[in-house]
Amino acid sequence: MKKSFKLATLTAAMLCSAHAMANEPVYVTGGANMFFFDTDVHNVDNGAIGPWLGLGYQIDKEWAVEVNYNMASTETDTASAVDTDVSLLSVNGVYRYAPVGENSLLAKAGLGQYKLDAGSLGDESKVAIRAGAGYEYFIQPQLSATFFWDLLVSFDSTLIESMPSIGLKYQFGQASSKSTKSAAKTTAPKAPVKPVVVDTDADGVADSADLCANTPTGVRVNSQGCPFDRDADGVYDYLDECPMTPEGAKVTDNGCREQLVETVSIQLYVSFPNNSSVVPAEYHDEIKKVADFMRQYPDSTVTLVGHTDSSGSAAYNQMLSEKRAARVAAYLVNNFGLESERVLSRGEGETNPIADNSTAQGREKNRRVTAEISATATK
């Protein structure tokens, strides 16, 4: 009788609370449970069956807090077989692996007050940890069936019991995602209508921000709506047959390097002071033109040829001409990053004058380094 009164009182309280919070994400739940006792600790019969009730609050799409009251009746495992009431009042956190409104696995953990009342033989009360796992199956948008298997463990580890249960759950308020979606189908949207975004070529960039408005379907684009060009050669990747062209290389319409079919000459003339191999600063820009040309044609090479006037011995002039050519070669490699194997040098001493060595003006013209650039690849 006492147990029935408790259950009726709790049921009435839960219904009143649920009615008062009908527009809140509150739910009521209840069903039947069974207690399996640790017979080494409790001298009672196993398999006690009884009802349970719960009141929950859905915090968000995944988490809820829930108050449960579980009870059952059994008998002591003694000759006199005394009636024994079992009850558990607990507060639990419930986590669901899918949003509210969808069938989902559940996990539960909490604390509870466990009581075993054997009448004249006395009673026992302990604080226990409750933990379990279950599954929720939606019958209707706000009505579902639940299945749980919980484990109870007291803080002094003297109470170890398991408790399977089944039940029904009714969800109030707007917590159910299915009911929310259903309502959305029949209710006019309250949010202001967003302006229509036009994207003619369907590349994900609105026409108002698209700098390449006619991109072919399926071509990947950047934030400006233009196709990617990874090697920055001016040919989009989807048209580029040579997508890894070296930086600065001159390319054809298909993105491949433009190759030379004959020797190409660029006039480099560096004049040196008498008996000097230091590259004069006024010729740095001319040398840079050679470097720029060679970057345009990565297959090209350069041969730097040094010369002298006829002052001094022929052997000395040969050494000086080689040194002048080597200094210009080093300037190209060190200042413009050209590969050393592409920059060759040699000296011709005083053997190839271009002016009269008997005059100062002629000797000045003969103290020089010239360049010849060639490429062997074909288109």
TrEMBL record:
GO biological process, one term: monoatomic ion transport
Keyword Signal carried by entry: yes
Gene Ontology MF annotations: calcium ion binding; hydrolase activity; porin activity
The keyword Hydrolase is annotated on this UniProt entry: yes
Gene Ontology CC: one annotated term: cell outer membrane
InterPro entries, alphabetized: Bact_OuterMem_StrucFunc (IPR050330), Beta-barrel_OMP (IPR027385), OMP/PagP_B-barrel (IPR011250), OMP_bac (IPR006664), OmpA-like (IPR006665), OMPA-like_CS (IPR006690), OmpA-like_sf (IPR036737), Thrombospondin_3-like_rpt (IPR003367)
Region called Disordered, residue ranges: 347-379
Name by which UniProt lists this protein: HAD family hydrolase
Record organism: Catenovulum agarivorans DS-2
